[in-house]
Amino acid sequence: MPRRQTVSPLEQVLLTRHVVPWWLYFLLAIITWLALHYIAQSVRPFSQRGSEMVTLLHSFALVGQVLVPLALLCTGVAELFNRLSRRRRLDRLQHEGTSECLLEQLSWQEMYDLVELALHGEGYRSVSGAAKDTELMLQRGELRALLVTEYWRRPTLKTAMLQHALERAQALDAEATIVVCNGRINNDTRAFARRNAIRLIDRGHMQQWLQRAAKQGGALS
């Protein structure tokens, strides 16, 4: 049976967000236990003056050989459980098949990862500069753009919100502003966005990206 070679963008969003793989925690637990157990058995505390460091090291190794590997094992089990849960969720979302349903079930972090992945496909790259968790500074060539996801779950995107996003971009020396919103955007707000060259990533864009991500293994462009 041929091995699968490609990973869809939706799988990248839902499954590969974590940097440390689950199995690495188990490996670290074994290595840590061996190292601390060796220290606990090799180093003996002394009663003479000046042996405080040796006694401290022995005490740390004695307790740490149990607690540190146990903490790593628990973290590894939790990470494995999360990945299995996310895999089942991915299978369910793809089985349901509609971008509307996919969009409603995305968490904030999954939305953030999907938008970032899609913009990377357009040539944008993440750079330092944003100060908030709901903002991301992007750069494409000489153009710096501020991605604002603060209003993702707002039922209605208002002009005042775009004005605030524009002021944030200007304060961070960004030449462009990109705002993500899953809610309603009226004509006045869209007109304000056009006048101020603000790019809106609305519900329609997100549905298109999700539909392509769920059905294709290619880039979100």
Automatic annotation (TrEMBL):
It comes from the Bacteria. It holds the Pfam family Mrr_cat. The keyword Transmembrane helix applies. Keywords: Membrane, Transmembrane, Transmembrane helix. GO terms for biological process: DNA restriction-modification system. The chain crosses the membrane at residues 20-40, 60-82. The keyword Transmembrane helix applies. Residues 103-210 form the Restriction endonuclease type IV Mrr domain. One of its GO terms (molecular function) is DNA binding. This is Restriction endonuclease type IV Mrr domain-containing protein. The lineage of its organism: Bacteria, Pseudomonadati, Pseudomonadota, Gammaproteobacteria, Pseudomonadales.
